[in-house]
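hey can u check if this looks right to u? its 228 residues, i copy pasted from the old doc so theres a chance i mangled smth
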Amino acid sequence: MIAPAQLPLALKLRAGSSLSSFITGDNTLLLAALDELGCTESGQLYLWGESGSGRSHLLEGKVREAGGAGCFLAAQELVSLAPDVLEGLEQFRVLAIDDIDLLAGRADWEAALFHLYNRLREAGGSLLVSARQPPGESGFQLADLTSRLAAGPVWRVVPLADEGLLELVRQRGRGAGLEVSDDVARYLLARSTRSAAAIAALLAQLDQLAMAHQRRLTIPFIRSLRLS
């Protein structure tokens, strides 16, 4: 495996971003496809969906499942570097690249991704990527790269409906050590951006404030706060 000094962009996975903690909602078939990834040689999966739909969570969860044989990269971190940072990554059994569409339209990066794809296939590894749009709508200029990314299963990550979001509020609350009643969960959901990241940030802020004030998380207490 590549030593940490050789691969500074292999990001540390966030606590809680496991496949078992992902609230499925209408993504049952997608989860089944993700579960199969890595079970056969040269697999691939392309996930797309709006920001906050859980794409990053799924990629991190699959890499966590792979243990030392997995690698998670964020394109947001890659864009400021030279594409040769991708050299040698074909040694991983599961390679995940989050927000890969951020590299679209950059000829050097597209060529590097195309060659990495081919090397990974030859090595028998699996590629898991996420983007905001399907391959043909993500802005890639290299036709061969677009066709490669579209060659395997392409799944949309369906955002959670209300019940799923309420369960997300309760789950993230438990993770932060907060007791979140159903009434409080509904109150918070009505006042939060409907995404996992926004809900997690809100609950982290409430956790700090509840500890500082030595208060339980109730609707009157939340109303008394000036939340950012």
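The chain has two domains: 19-156, 162-223.
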